[in-house]
Amino acid sequence: MRVELSVSGMRCNKCVDKIEKFIGEIDGISLIDVDLQDSKVQNSKVIVEFESPATQELITEAILDAGFEVE
Asked: DSSP assignment of 1-69, as one string?
């Protein structure tokens, strides 16, 4: 499966690293692609490809646990 999420609060490459770390800890993740946008203009895009046991809910929870908001 593939999901594209709109994430707010990401401002730098350290934020990208943090998102990748938290999502990467979920079993079943095969791709994490973060498109860091100018946070003053729009939210960043996070694209994740995954298979079971990963779910969109687990991915969203990981992003929230990392300290960011999913729109």
From this structure: -EEEEEEES--SHHHHHHHHHHHHTSTTEEEEEEE---TTT-PEEEEEEE-TT--HHHHHHHHHHTT-E
